[in-house]
Amino acid sequence: MGQGSKRSQVSPFIVMDIMREANELEAKGKSIIHMEVGQPSTSAPRQALRTAGKVLLQERLGYTEALGDIDLRKKISQFYIARYNLEIDFNRIIVTTGASGGLQLAFLSLFDAGDRVALTEPCYPGYRNMLSSMNIEIEKLSIGPEYDFRLNVEVLEKMSNRIDGLIMSSPGNPTGSMTKAEQLELIVSWCQENQVKLISDEIYHGIEYEEPAITAVNLDNDSIVINSFSKYFSMTGWRLGWMVVPENMIRTIERLAQNLFISPPTISQLAALGSLDSLEELNQTVARYKKNRELMISRLPQCGLSKFAPIDGAFYAYVDVSNLADNSEIFCREMLREIGVAITPGIDFDRENGMRYVRFCFSGLTEEINEAMNRLSNWLN
Ligand SMILES: Cc1ncc(COP(=O)(O)O)c(C=O)c1O
């Protein structure tokens, strides 16, 4: 049958290869500190687990409506009032199978094959790979240290190609860097003036350290917002997210969602109702991330690694290792084998400059992060 279609030939996630190797070494008895995969180290909030346990015994758990359980959509709408002081009609909220499901629905509903969509480099690799599997052209916007790894309107103005869409994420993955509020306003206006469809991936909202993140719907009702229960809500494996969409896109997305997914996972939707009542518990987890972030910011330079992207949010440190190695993938593999600390090479996120960078995920226990920094410091000094 050959290799399958041309559009399905997307790049693998190197991080998954690193994780496999880390697990193999762990199974052989080596002590491994996992900082490679970008997910919370805690389980879903207690209230979510209690709700899930209860419904598992009592409910049939059939499909829900394709747009999601109506109570959950209403509760997410209330959450927008609590978090952003913003009223959003619950009809504009669509529950999805993770942010990943939301991104697929957004791309399919907004773009045709041959359209051109801009994304930053570095960025979450799923964007690039999903778009190329849909035969959508990609415009890369390089935002390295010269821009403090933050998207700004100057980068858009410099672009020579016309684009149909722009994807941005603030805080971003792999950097954790956030676009400044005034820049976000300029970017939104630029998209409106140039008839560019904006997709704002807000999956790391709620995990911010300096300034609260601003949602794009606050500035533009025509943008599509993607969010998820995977990160702040600590429900990665439950595969649940949501979108906020313009009113005139609801029916289009509903038709796609009915055919692609039928409905998001029912048990996860019911559990998510409990998560939305658990903000205090979730904020305690964010307080731990904050401690871990401080630890990384003070310890990395002591290891000779003083160049990294501003960690404004999320739980990542994107670190320049070019003073120590010319190939970050080899650097990561050596680090794993020699000191048992698993991290991700930058090439997953940036095909051009990623060889210079690595990503640490610091969502683990503070003691583990401290131990990882001890091992790194002994290894490099
Ligand atoms: C920026 C970004 N968007 C989307 C996703 C996919 O998330 P989900 O688990 O909600 O599908 C991730 C996962 O790491 C991410 O980092």
Give the topology.
Layout: H1 14-27, E1 33-34, H2 46-58, H3 70-84, E2 93-96, H4 98-110, E3 116-121, H5 125-133, E4 137-142, H6 153-157, E5 165-169, H7 181-193, E6 197-201, E7 224-228, E8 241-244, H8 250-260, H9 266-275, H10 279-302, E9 316-320, H11 328-339, E10 341-342, E11 344-345, E12 357-361, H12 366-380
Parallel strand pairs: 1-10, 3-4, 3-5, 5-6, 6-7
Antiparallel strand pairs: 2-8, 7-8, 9-12, 11-12
Helix pairs in contact: 1-11, 2-9, 4-5, 4-8, 10-12
The chain binds pyridoxal-5'-phosphate.
Features:
381 residues; alpha/beta; Aspartate Aminotransferase, domain 2; 2 domains; seven-stranded mixed beta sheet; three-stranded antiparallel beta sheet; binds pyridoxal-5'-phosphate
